[in-house]
Amino acid sequence: MSKINLTPNASGTGVFTIASPNSNTDRTLNLPEESGTVITTQSPQLGRRNLIINGAMNVAQRGTSIAVSTTGVYTLDRFICDEFTDGALTVSQDTDAPNDFNYSLKVTPSTADTSIASSQYARIRYRPEGFDLTTLAFGTSNAKSLAFSFYAKSNKAGTYCIAMDLLGGTERTYIKEISLTNTWSRYVINIPANTVQAINNSTTGAACEIDISLAVGSDYHGTTEDWTNTGFATSNQVNFMDSTANELYITGVQLEVGDVATPFENRSYGEELALCQRYFFKTTGTVQGGGLSVVTQPLDSIIGVNENLPVTMRASPTLTMLGTTYRTGGDADGQNVTPTHITWGRKKTGSGTANVGAYAMGGFQVEAEL
After folding, report:
1. Has this prediction a pTM greater than 0.85?
2. Tens-digit pLDDT profile for residues 325-360
3. Residue 307 per-residue DSSP state
4. Domain that holds residue 102
5. CA-to-CA distance for 281 and 78, rounded, in angstroms?
6. Residue 1 has pLDDT above 80, yes or no
7. 272: closest CA among 98, 85, 25, 101?
8. Which DSSP string corresponds to 273-294?
């Protein structure tokens, strides 16, 4: 009877390759030294493993350059910038990127702040949707660890802080320091399972935040590799805001279950765009509509711009009509906005009928961000 021998390499890991047979009855599988990804029994599935949307920074529906002078500003799709110092930032989509990537997110101070007060901070954030993190099982004995990876470089070399901030119940944050240089490198942050603190993982709301700090005052300082923090950086964090010459580039952002950071998962542009449009959609072409408005009790009949959305959005979005807008006819303005459809125009509120028309020369946008 033939047999199969499994021969590990010196480190005990590797990729199976079939070597030449040793004899007619002996087949040996050698495990050579391996320089790429190691697949273990704890590795996640190889498909659909990245929990971050737009990690390659390919989608920029709001524009390729965004001025930021306050908190909660969405820049490239799904990525938020907080600017709460005496300075200001510009976030842009840039073609400076490592091999296998087209774009990066670039951030640079447009106004400097050389002295960060205790209550001030600047950072880049990402908020995953709750249902996307159900598999983590945080707050239970089955909680799973995470690997957070990304490519980055900065001419403001020094210590930068990465944090995972759990949302739901008592706030808990895990902080890790990295050292950035002006050369593209991949960074891997292993985030341990949290068996104590549950997260909002059964909701369309935000489950957690991933923070990349730029400058952080002492009110938000904590300690590294400890789930008891309420801050999101350490006192070693550099002040990236101290010069308008500073530049930071980030791309290839990936969050996955397990301890192994696998190669970045590339999705097609069409798929990535559709995932982004669950939270934000913008069209810039003229939209218009019109017709006869008739009151049909108990509902009013809204006539005007009538558009289906490309994907079902996370929640009923906020609607903004763009460019020159016009509505005429009927008795009152009206709109109806759902996760799948918008209607914007005029309506009858009394008896009779009316000819109604509406248009927006610059299109419209809908937002259902976290």
Report:
1. yes
2. 999 998 899 999 999 999 999 988 877 888 999 999
3. E
4. 65-277
5. 12
6. no
7. 101
8. HHHHHTTEEEE-S-EEEEEEEE
